[in-house]
Structures are given as C-alpha cells and as structure tokens.
Write a sequence for this structure.
C-alpha cells in the first residue's frame, strides 16, 4: 500500500501527465474554432473530463489511494448531477415561458464585439 | 496499523491552558467549546422565543398591543432563522457534536482543536452580525426565513436594505464556522476512533451527528452561494435573481451607491428558491438526524434494552441522508416551476418516508415490553417519538402535490414544520441535556423541576400546534400580520383558537425559564452524580474523572469490545455492560470478536 | 493501490476500527473533505450560471470574441485565457514535483518547487487582474455590457472572482508552507503537509478546467 509511506511515484509519470495536459488543453482551445453544435460541445466536455481526470487521478494521487477513500469522494457529487440536470430542465422551461408570454425574440444574436 | 496510530493519538499534543482566558474563553478543549456553543445557542434561542411572543400577542389580540406590521414581519423572520440555524443546528452539532464525538469514540479531543476553537468564535461573530441587524438603518430583514427575492430586497419589505445584508453576511460567516467545526467532527469520526471502535459499534448519536455533518458540508454551500448572489444583486446591481420589475417597485442598494446601474432585468427568482431548498431540505435533516441518533440512545439506556435493529437504524440514517438531496422542490409546488417536477419530487418525498418510518418502528419496538425507567430524559425521548409521528404524518399530506396546493402557506404548514422540526428536535435537546448534564457538571439536574418543565412543554406545545392544523384547514394564511376580527372572513372558532394558542405560547415560553433556573441552580446545588448515574454503556460514562478533564482518558485510551447497547444481557451480573468490558469466551478468557484487525 | 483486487478492501476499511482511510494523515483527510465541500460551492456557482444563461431571453455575448486579443493586427480568440490555462497547468506540474521531492526528503528542491508554484499562481492572478481591467474599460459591468445579456458580466465577475480568491489564498498558503518547511518545522514528518497544500492547489487548477470549458468555450 503505497500511501502508507506517502505518495512516491517515478517523476516520469508526472512529466507524462504534464505533457498530456498541455496537449489536451491545446485541443480544447482548438474547439473554439469549430462551429457551434453537438460536435463542439461534445469535444469541450470530452477534453474537460480528460483533463479533470488526469488532475484528480495523478496529480492529486486519487488513483493510488484505497477504494475506501475514492468512493467516499466520488459518490457525493452525484447529488450535483441531479441538481444540474433538473436545473437544466427548469431553466429551459422558464425560458420558454418568457418567450411565450413576454414575446421576446428567441433568435436574437449578441451584438458584435469591437475592442 | 492501529498499532502505529493509537500511540499517536495517545500522545496527541494538547494545548494546556495557562490562564482563565485560555481555559474558558479561547479553550481548545472540545468539552469547553461544546458548552460555549450551547450557552450561546440557548441565549439566541431565548431571543427567538421572545420574538414568538411578540407574534402571538399580535395574532391573539390584533392591534391591541400596538405592534406594527414591520415588527411582526421582522419577528417571524428572525424567529425562524434563529431557531433553525443559530439554535438547532448550532446546538445539535456545535454542542452535542463537540461534546459527544471525542468522548463516545474514545478520542483525546477533536483532531484539530485549534480549528475547533476558531469555529466557535466565528459562530459567535455570526451571531453578533445577525443581531447587529437590529441597529442598522431600517432594522432587521422581514423577508421571512426563506429570504425569497425579489421581495427580500425590494423597497417595502422591512430591512430590504441593510437588514438583509446583515442577515446574509451572518449566514455566510455561520457557514464558515460550521465548516471548520464540521470538518473536525467528520475527520475525528473517520480517522481517530479508539481501538475496537468500528463504525458499526458507534452509538447512534454519533451516527446521527456524522450523517448530519456530512449533509451540512454538502448542503450549506448552496446557501452560501445564494447568499453571495443576493448580496451582489442588492449591492452591486447584478440580476441573478431579479427579473425586470416595474419601476414603482425599484429595489436594491446598488442604485444609490454605484454609478450607472440600471434596472433589474432577466434574473431568475426560481433559481434562488431551488438553491435555497437544495440547502433547506437537507437542513431539515441536519436538525433531525442528530436528534434521531440521540433519542435512540436515550431510549435504549432508559428502557434498559438494546436498540431494536441497530444496523437498520444506521442504514436508515444513511438512506435518509442520501435521499434528502433529491427531494428539495417539495417546498415549491406552488412556485410555478417545471410542471413535471411535482411528480418527481412527490415520489422521492414519499420514498424518504420509508426509512423514516423504519426508525419510528424501531424506537417503538425498543420500548416494547422494556423495563422502562421514566426518568426525565426518557419522558422527553418518548415525547419526541409521539411528536415526530404527528409531524411526520402531516408531512405525508404536504408531500402530495394535489393536497399541498390548498394547504401550502397556511397554518397547516406552520403546524407541520413546528411539530416535526421545531418541537421534536427541541425535545431531544432537552432530553439530551437532562441526560448528559451530570457528566458535564458532575451534578444531577433537579428532578421535580425537570418533570414540571417536561409536562408544561409537552402538553403546552400540543395546545399551541394542534389547533393550528384546524386553522390551516379553514384557510388561515401563514405570515399574515392580521388575521382579521370580523367573523365575515374569519370564523369565530378561529379567532377563539388564536387567543387560546397565544395563551398556551406564553405559558410554554415561561416554562423554559424553569429549565434555565434548573441549569443554574443545579450547577451549584445539584445532587452529586457519580460517574454513571444512568448506568449507561457508552464510553463517555467511562472516563476516569467526572467531569472529564482535558484529554479525557488519562494516559491510555480505552479499548472497545462490544457495541453500545448491551443492556439486560441474559446471564450478566449487571443489567448493562459498558463498551470497554472485554468479552468472555467459553474458557472464561477475554475474547475478541468482530473487531477487524487491519 | 486502487486495483480490482483492492475493491475488497472497501468493506474491510469501512468495517475496521481506529481509521477508515488507512494511512491517510488527519490533515490530508480533512483537506479532502473540505475540497468535497468546496466542489459543491463551485458547482452551485456554475449551476447558477447555467440557469441564468439559459433563462435570460437576451442573447449571450460571444465569449470567444469578448476575450480575444489583437496580436500583430490579428485578433486571436481567447489568447489570454489560453495562456492563463497553460500557466496554471505548469504550476500544477511544479506542485506535483514538489510533493514528490518532499516525500524523497529532498527539502531544498521541494521548497524551490513550491516557490515556483506560488510564482505561477501569482502570474495567474496578475493576468486575471489585467483581464478584469480590460473588460471593465470596455464597459463590462456586473449589471450591463454592450453586447447582450447583462448576466454575462455578473457571472464573469462572480465566478472568476471567486476562483481568483482561491488562487490568491493558495499563493499565500503556499508561501507559508514553503517558509515553514524551510525552517524545518516538518522535519520530523514525511512532509505530507506538502501533499496537503498540493491537493488544494490542484483543486484550484481543476476548477479552472471547468470554468474554462463552461464559461469561456461554451
Ligand atoms: C414556543 C415555541 C414557538 C412558538 C410560540 C412559535 C410561534 C411561531 C409563529 C407565531 C410563527 C409565525 C407564523 C406566521 O405568521 O406565519 C412562527 C414561524 C416559524 N417558526 Fe416558530 N414558534 C416556536 C418555536 C419554534 C421552533 C423551536 C422552531 C425551530 C425550527 C421554529 C421555527 C419557525 C420557522 C422556521 C418559522 C417560519 C418563519 C417564516 O415564516 O419565515 N419555531 N413560529
Ligand atoms: Cu423539505
């Protein structure tokens, strides 16, 4: 059990993850040049989770901890998924009622940005 | 590993107090901090009690006492918030949690005594900020304890400018205090138990405190975030929660303070309600779960019987804790939320009734054919079960959308939540104080005064809240300043009940001073208690000294050999076997069973 | 070690006496639990952001244009944000190495790497200050902006502000720990304190990953 004597791992792992994070960050930055759409949003989420996974698993050493701790930390945020999911539905509903009753323009686009 | 960690705990450096100040004010001893939390919480609790008198004066005899609408609004807001947060949460976790966790687990202290000390002082600060609201221009907020925007920060609501700021700031500070304390309780429970103390041997009090603290650590963030956003709406002019509002109702402080703010626009009031109740419903269980735990122990000890279905009790606590995060919008059936939500939240709400009912059955079955000692703590414990059942049953009504719609915002709701989360946990707090006071001070509380206090409180609260169900049925709305005095709109029966309820409220309130007097007088004159007056089994009764000294256990931590419920074991010499008494095998030698070596 | 066989340890660990998280020092357990609580804070902020962004009927300003910088006459979207992201990742790398050298009892290297981490953190906050300054001078306020929904500014200042406060607090925390490690306060331990401050620091980076995805890219 490695954690008993602290988290000692070869430096090469960190360098690999470090480089990996740079690459994935570059990729997620690149999504900005894609058209809005499922593809782009999917990639944003994918790269986000890959990066988050690397950080939590390797840099924060969660991967090397015992399952007792891993589960204790990863299960509670499930409650957040419920919150996010329901608030997504809820906010869509609010938006629809606004369009419906206040006659606001659902297709309005933001004004162009001039620096 | 226990081999390596126990000596570490035994040698845990404790901060030795050198002066009165470090011993009683900046103390790092969990027992002193517990008492500090307790006294402060009781003091603000008394204020909340007086506020309820103000309300009852107005409701019983409208207009007679010259109580202005603003005062009425401010009173129920402060009353509600103080009762829920600054009294119940602070008492059950800050006081019971602090006192019991290290003692019941056989630890020297909390894992980080310094942080624990700071926690109390930050809590005190939050109380001061809350009360400072009375001295700012406009006075404290009158938005109701739910603080719903837009009205919470619109002109016309009392304290819409500075009062709400003091309230929100105070809540944020309270959350910081709670987090510091809560991290300590959780870490101590998980990482600093004594030899042989497995989770499944912990007294249920600790299970309740543990689950409630975890809920708090995960639910208070939502309140924190909504407090921050409402402060921004009010003082910076953002529109998180504020929709476009006709100019006649302009609100917020930002307009007068920041150049260029414009009208509110496009925010979502429902967002606040969701965030508030994402905190608010778990909060109900933050208050209820420690009460569940403590009452289980009181019942078992004073009924001289092991708690019925210990494992099921633990799993019920865990299940309630988990479910409490997915029921929140049952408080919003009439708020205009997504139409599908009613079904979802009604279902989850009714599901949570299952583990709750299991707990009630188990308490009842523990009492069944037990050798009950009707001590004062036991009276309060039984009263809790009865009250909780009454409040829980009305909860089943309110959990159904179609029934809730006409009952929402009536006195039926007031009756429901006072029964289930007002009176019930307060009864447990009283029971717990009568139970542990002998350990804390070394003296017994006066029994006669205790019984008097009990009957006044128990019968009195029924006199107050039972009639409120009827008021709710006839449609008396909650949070109304004036229920009216003509029978054209307000039936005579209801007017009569309002007066009766008020009289009962004064009597119940006055009876609490008996309790305070008992606490003070017994401290000096009470009968010496001895180490274990109730003949209980859990570790806090096994300290070498009573009251326990700093460090609790002398040089060696106790070793646990059994659960906390070995009462009336057939064949045993006494009708109770403390947790640190070794088990005997067939050969008469002590035998270890169940403790998992690691 | 987290392996399939290790799964059986869950019940053993949770069923054992004394400690539930075997081999985890008190401070580290407490930091993890705190971070769990903090996760809920940031998630609530982001959920609120999602909600107001969806509910508002005004159009949402285009972040990629708002946060572009002009370099050599060419407008590069999100340039500063990209640099900030790389800066924070770099700091996470130095932090991870500091933890590693701490456990190797190489105090000198560990302290230097902590200081490097703090430096990158400071750079991050400075760039954020610049970003705020730029946006404010372009007329973005928490209550209005020139392009679309006013909640854009509100969410921007609140979320990046709260994250920035975390970074600043982290820098202070790192400096204190570096000082104390240097003074030899932890020589009798395994230097697990470096891992603890490291957890906090990586968490701040983690939050940024989500902010980057949801606020800047979405
Ligand atoms: C003698 C004891 C008590 C009396 C006489 C009393 C009386 C009242 C009254 C008259 C109201 C206002 C109802 C209205 O106008 O809508 C109220 C509200 C409330 N009370 Fe109590 N109460 C007592 C104890 C408690 C306790 C122990 C709690 C703890 C949970 C509590 C929590 C609340 C809450 C949360 C509200 C709602 C405030 C609001 O509407 O914003 N009360 N109480
Ligand atoms: Cu609820």
């Amino acid at each position: 059990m490695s954690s008993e004597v602290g988290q000692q791992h070869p430096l090469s792992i960190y360098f690999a993850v470090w480089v990996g994070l740079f690459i994935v960050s570059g990729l997620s930055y690149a999504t900005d040049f894609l058209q809005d759409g499922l593809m782009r949003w999917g990639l944003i989420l994918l790269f986000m989770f890959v990066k988050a996974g690397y950080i939590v698993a390797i840099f924060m050493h969660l991967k090397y901890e015992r399952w007792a701790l891993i589960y204790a930390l990863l299960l509670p945020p499930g409650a957040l998924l419920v919150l996010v999911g329901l608030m997504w539905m809820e906010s869509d509903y609010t938006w629809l009622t606004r369009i419906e009753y206040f006659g606001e323009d659902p297709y309005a686009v933001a004004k162009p940005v001039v620096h | 590993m226990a081999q390596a960690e126990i000596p570490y705990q035994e040698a845990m450096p404790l901060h030795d107090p050198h002066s009165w100040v470090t011993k009683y004010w900046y103390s790092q001893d969990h027992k002193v901090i517990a008492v500090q939390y307790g006294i402060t919480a009781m003091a603000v609790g008394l204020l909340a009690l007086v506020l309820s008198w103000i309300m009852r004066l107005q409701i019983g005899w409208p207009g007679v006492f010259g109580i202005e609408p603003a005062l009425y609004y401010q009173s129920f807001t402060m009353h509600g918030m103080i009762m829920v947060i600054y009294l119940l949460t602070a008492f059950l976790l800050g006081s019971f949690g602090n006192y019991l966790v290290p003692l019941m687990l056989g630890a020297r202290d909390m894992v980080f005594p310094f942080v624990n000390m700071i926690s109390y002082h930050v809590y005190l600060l939050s109380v001061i900020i809350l009360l400072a609201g009375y001295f700012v221009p406009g006075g404290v907020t009158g938005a109701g304890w739910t603080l719903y925007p837009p009205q919470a920060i619109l002109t016309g609501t009392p304290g819409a400018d500075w009062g709400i700021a003091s309230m929100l700031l105070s809540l944020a500070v309270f959350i910081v205090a709670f987090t510091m304390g809560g991290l300590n309780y959780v870490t101590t429970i998980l990482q600093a138990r004594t030899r042989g103390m497995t989770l499944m041997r912990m007294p249920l009090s600790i299970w309740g405190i543990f689950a409630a603290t975890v809920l708090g650590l995960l639910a208070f963030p939502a309140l924190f975030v909504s407090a921050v956003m409402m402060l921004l709406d009010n003082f910076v002019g953002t529109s998180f929660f504020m929709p476009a509002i006709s100019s006649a109702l302009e609100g917020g402080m930002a307009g007068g303070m920041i150049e260029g703010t414009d009208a509110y626009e496009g925010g979502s009031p429902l967002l606040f309600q969701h965030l508030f109740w994402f905190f608010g419903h778990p909060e109900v269980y933050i208050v209820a779960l420690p009460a569940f735990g403590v009452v289980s122990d009181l019942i078992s000890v004073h009924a001289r019987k092991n708690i019925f279905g210990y494992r099921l009790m633990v799993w019920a606590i865990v299940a309630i804790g988990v479910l409490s995060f997915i029921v929140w919008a049952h408080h919003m059936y009439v708020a205009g939320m997504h139409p599908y939500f009613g079904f979802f939240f009604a279902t989850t709400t009714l599901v949570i009734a299952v583990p709750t009912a299991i707990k009630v059955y188990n308490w009842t079955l523990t009492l069944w054919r037990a050798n009950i000692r009707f001590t004062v703590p036991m009276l309060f414990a039984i009263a809790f079960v009865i009250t909780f059942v009454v409040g829980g049953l009305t909860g089943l009504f309110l959990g159904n959308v179609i029934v809730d719609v006409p009952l929402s915002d009536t006195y039926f709701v007031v009756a429901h939540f006072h029964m289930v989360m007002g009176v019930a946990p307060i009864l447990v707090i009283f029971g717990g104080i009568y139970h542990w006071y002998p350990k804390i001070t070394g003296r017994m509380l006066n029994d006669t005064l205790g019984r008097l206090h009990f009957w006044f409180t128990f019968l009195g609260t029924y006199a107050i809240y039972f009639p409120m169900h009827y008021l709710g049925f006839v449609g008396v709305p909650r949070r109304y300043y004036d229920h009216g005095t003509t029978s054209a709109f307000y039936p005579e029966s209801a007017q009569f009940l309002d007066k009766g309820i008020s009289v009962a409220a004064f009597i119940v309130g006055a009876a609490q001073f008996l309790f305070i007097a008992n606490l003070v007088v017994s401290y000096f004159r009470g009968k010496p208690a001895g180490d274990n007056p109730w003949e209980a089994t859990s570790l806090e009764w096994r300290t070498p000294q009573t009251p326990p000294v700093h460090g609790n256990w002398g040089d060696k931590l106790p070793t646990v050999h059994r659960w906390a419920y070995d009462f009336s074991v057939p064949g045993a010499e006494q009708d109770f076997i403390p947790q640190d008494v070794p088990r005997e095998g067939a050969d008469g030698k002590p035998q270890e069973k169940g403790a998992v070596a690691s | 070690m987290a392996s399939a066989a290790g799964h059986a340890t869950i019940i053993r660990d949770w069923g054992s006496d004394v400690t539930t998280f075997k081999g985890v020092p008190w401070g580290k357990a407490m930091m993890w639990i705190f971070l769990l609580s903090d996760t809920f804070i940031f998630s609530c902020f982001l959920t609120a952001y999602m909600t107001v962004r969806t509910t508002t009927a005004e159009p949402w300003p285009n972040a990629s244009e708002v946060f572009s910088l002009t370099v050599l006459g060419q407008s590069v979207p999100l340039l500063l944000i990209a640099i900030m992201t790389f800066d924070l990742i770099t700091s996470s790398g130095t932090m991870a190495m500091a933890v590693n050298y701490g456990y190797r009892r190489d105090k000198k290297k560990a302290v230097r790497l902590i200081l490097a981490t703090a430096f990158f953190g400071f750079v991050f906050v400075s760039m954020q200050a610049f970003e705020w300054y730029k946006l404010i001078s372009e007329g973005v306020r928490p209550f209005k902006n020139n392009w679309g929904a006013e909640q854009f500014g509100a969410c921007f200042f609140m979320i990046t502000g709260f994250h920035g406060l975390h970074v600043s607090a982290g820098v202070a925390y790192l400096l204190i720990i570096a000082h104390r490690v240097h003074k030899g306060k932890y020589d009798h331990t395994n230097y697990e304190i470096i891992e603890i401050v490291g957890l906090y620091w990586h968490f701040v980076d983690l939050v940024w990953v989500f902010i980057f995805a949801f606020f800047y890219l979405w």
In short: Chain A has a mean pLDDT of 88. The CA atoms of residues 50 and 108 of chain A lie 34 Å apart. Residues 66-104 of chain A form one domain. The longest helix of chain A spans residues 78-102.
